[in-house]
Specification:
A: alpha+beta, Ubiquitin-like (UB roll), DNA polymerase, domain 1, 5 helices, 5 strands, B: Uridine Diphospho-n-acetylenolpyruvylglucosamine Reductase, domain 2, Enolase-like, domain 1
Chain lengths: ~160, ~280
């Protein structure tokens, strides 16, 4: 077992973990943060996307021990729970109906937030390219792209 | 999918990493960003007893200017390589290829040195490194040695790095002002290329360097094309004859994504596109 200390959604946590434990397992099974989902488990689909020190990563492709000393933000840490307000990108996905079954949505939103932090005013093509690591099997992507562009128009920030 | 149990070592210096490698030998596996290694471990295609994580070695990160070359630390991420001003100014081809590796999430974790040491024939960084004549700095317990790109790639997933050695940095001779383009042909977004071509040109066209991805077990130089491009005009007709030589001397695989003949065809077409694009792209756009 290896001792890790990290910040998850603003809270300091520490645990003894097996080195082979994936970050996504740690988030879901140890911390109960099931908002982050496991889709393909092969690092393709992006459903498990979270932010590690402020940039997007696929949490099924990171070991929990690699997050030691670092800061993780999951979909559960995005909304302003004090004010009861969704993050602007979450709001945009709701507004534009950027989902059908919703399974890919946590990862889509986390990647969209990363994309807009780097490029606040993307073109449609830049959105499609920037979201290429996230797969959706329902929507055909159109409303997802619309949602990201809508969030950009509204001045969404990370 | 969960990897087989392993012990975890997180050195903070190259010396510590080499000592750990010396202690555990064949039972150990080096992890850079882990973006290729972790899928392999999860699918249990490999089961090392010890994983040595280079992530805590700050000295392996970053890009510096060394006069006639830039030096990229092995643990610099694809994302950092893509955006680094020194890379964009002096090795635009590398920046362009780094921008095309997998997807954004993978580029945030995956590293320049890790990808090159992994030596996947479909990896995106080998062809540009070879085309630009990069030199690989490899550390062992007896010191460091430097290996030319032409000697670094030995075979399928095989490099000149010894079992007891670690790739620490890559020197890339400056190609300041050279236009560059990485043309990648993929089956679906964010996948490995079926074939890709890394082209960089001085003037339009005084001199050209062309690297091929996935046209054999290692990255290859399209030498005949390079020779034929010197002095041609950067037009569709000017470039076509030279690009038609791109598959000479290659040994592409046949697999579910395409037969060898199809890959040779792709190499010719993609070379033409990459060279023309490179000739019109002296800066990042």
């Amino acid at each position: 077992m290896t001792k890790i200390h990290l910040t998850v959604d603003g809270a300091a946590v520490s645990d003894d973990v097996e080195p082979r434990m994936l970050l996504v397992q740690y988030l879901r099974e140890k911390l109960g943060k099931t908002g982050t989902v496991i889709g393909c488990d092969t690092s393709n689909c992006g459903a498990c996307t979270v932010h590690l020190d402020g940039t997007s990563v696929k949490s099924c492709n990171v070991l929990a021990v690699q997050a030691d000393g670092r800061s993780v933000t999951t979909i559960e840490g995005l909304a302003d729970t004090v004010e009861g307000e969704l993050h602007p990108v979450q709001e945009a996905f709701r507004e534009c109906h950027g989902l059908q079954c919703g399974f890919c949505t946590p990862g889509m939103i986390m990647q969209a937030v990363d994309l807009l932090a780097e490029n606040p005013h993307p073109t449609e093509e830049e959105v499609r390219l920037g979201m290429e690591g996230n797969l959706c099997r329902c929507t055909g992507y159109h409303n997802i792209v619309k949602s990201v562009l809508h969030a950009a128009e509204g001045g969404a920030r990370a | 999918m969960i990897p087989v149990k392993f012990d975890y070592v997180a050195p903070t210096s190259v010396e510590e990493a080499l000592a750990a490698l010396g202690e555990h030998g064949d039972d150990a596996k080096i992890m850079a960003g882990g973006q290729s290694l972790l899928p392999v471990l999860r699918m249990r295609l490999n089961a090392p007893e010890v994983v040595i994580d280079l992530g805590g070695i700050d000295a392996l990160r970053g890009v510096r200017d060394e006069g006639d070359a830039i030096v990229v630390g092995a643990m610099t991420t694809h994302h950092e390589v893509r955006d680094h001003p020194l890379v964009r100014e002096h090795a635009l081809l590398v920046a362009k290829a780094a921008a095309d590796v997998a997807d954004a999430q993978i580029r945030h974790r995956g590293t320049f040195g890790g990808a090159l040491a992994h030596a996947d024939p479909a990896g995106d960084l080998g062809a540009p490194a070879l085309a630009l004549g990069a030199q690989f700095v490899i550390a062992g317990t007896d010191g460091t040695r430097t290996v030319e790109a032409s000697d670094f790639f030995v075979g399928l997933f095989e490099t000149a790095i010894g079992d007891d050695e670690i790739l620490t940095e890559v020197r890339i001779p400056k190609h300041t002002g050279w236009g560059a383009h990485y043309e990648k042909f993929v089956r679906v977004a964010h996948q490995w290329p079926i074939v890709a071509v890394a082209a960089t040109v001085r003037g339009s066209i005084d001199e050209a360097r062309v690297g091929l991805t996935n046209m054999g077990p290692t990255p290859l130089r399209a030498r005949a094309t390079e020779a034929a491009l010197a002095g041609v005009s950067a037009t569709e007709d000017g470039v076509r004859a030279a690009a038609d030589l791109a598959a000479e001397g290659t040994d592409p695989p046949s697999d579910l994504n395409g037969a060898a003949d199809y890959r040779r065809h792709l190499a010719r077409v993609l070379t033409r596109r990459a060279v023309l694009e490179a000739a019109g792209a002296q800066a990042w756009s």
